[in-house]
Amino acid sequence: MLKNRDFRVAMVFISPAILFFLLFWAAPMALAVYYSLTDWQVGQDETWAGLANYTRLLSDPEFHTAVLSSLTIVGIVMAASLAIALGVALVLVDPRIRAGRLWRVAVIVPVVTDWVATGLVFQLFFLPNQGVLASLGIDALTNVGWTTDASLAPWAIAIFVIWKQTGLYAIFFLAGLKGIPADVMEAARVDGANPWQAFWRIRWPMMRPITVFVVVLAFVTTLGLFEPVYLLTGGGPAGATRTLPLFLFENFFTFGNSGYASAAGIYFLVLSLLFTFVASRILKDSHES
């Protein structure tokens, strides 16, 4: 009787989360899968198309470019932001750092600021000849077409995203570092381990679960970003930054190819799940070895 009562109480508390999941994740996902198998155009009735949208995407050069653009920006952001975040966390976890709480607040401020507001600031920052760099007198960077050069535009977006998201990853890494028992680190120091050995042999292995979470979070979050691309470049120049979210947006809202956009969204989901699985396996295998 007590177990049944506990079950009912538990269901009352978790039912909002279950309802939210069903309404805002499961149901839209089921609709996306259905519409991806049709040739639905906005304002028209859909007709069954089977796997035609998926096969068309595999041969669509614009989709290939969007995937490559997304992965390029994701690669830059992940390599830089995770390295910086881990370094910041290692500094903040040191008890000798003064005003540690103030520094933690400073680290998280970019994360909680609005994408659009900060995007407008970065637009001014990257303006050639009249932007922030020009006003600072940095001549070497004044005439650089950050958002108009196809080779530099992905870097401009990546710089914006790195500034915006690194603090969040640093906080996660900091939580992982603080979760390591102090007596373990003290024993390592007593045994003569230097800071690098203590990190590589003790801290890093014990942080593998949080590392998997942060790596997957960074990939999925960066891959799905729409605001920084739309604000800084709009997908240009010459499609150099036309990422997957922008590809979906244009096909659905601009061209009205809703079924085609839904199929691209399913590929988007599969890519995220595949990376999550591979990253988890790699980090797990390296931990076990």
Q: Which SSEs are present, and which pair or pack?
A:
Elements: H1 2-36, H2 52-58, H3 61-92, H4 100-112, H5 115-126, H6 132-135, H7 139-142, H8 153-178, H9 182-190, H10 195-206, H11 208-223, H12 227-232, H13 244-254, H14 258-288
Helix pairs in contact: 1-14, 3-8, 3-11, 4-8, 8-11, 9-10, 11-14, 13-14
Transmembrane segments: 12-35, 66-93, 105-126, 152-175, 210-232, 252-279
Domain ABC transmembrane type-1: 67-279
Membrane topology: Multi-pass membrane protein
Radius of gyration: 23 Å
**pLDDT < 50 stretches:** none
Q: Give the proportion of residues in helices.
A: over 70%
* CATH C-level category: Mainly Alpha
- Provide the domain count: 1
CATH topology: MetI-like fold
State the distance separating the first and last CA atoms. Answer: 47 Å
Major sheet summary line: none
> Helical stretch count?
14
How does the helix and strand content classify structurally? Answer: mainly alpha
The count of strands amounts to: 0
Coarse morphology: globular
Write down the overall mean pLDDT.
86
**Series of H and E elements:** HHHHHHHHHHHHHH
Give the amount of beta strand, in percent.
under 5%
CATH architectural label:
Orthogonal Bundle
Superfamily at the CATH H level? MetI-like
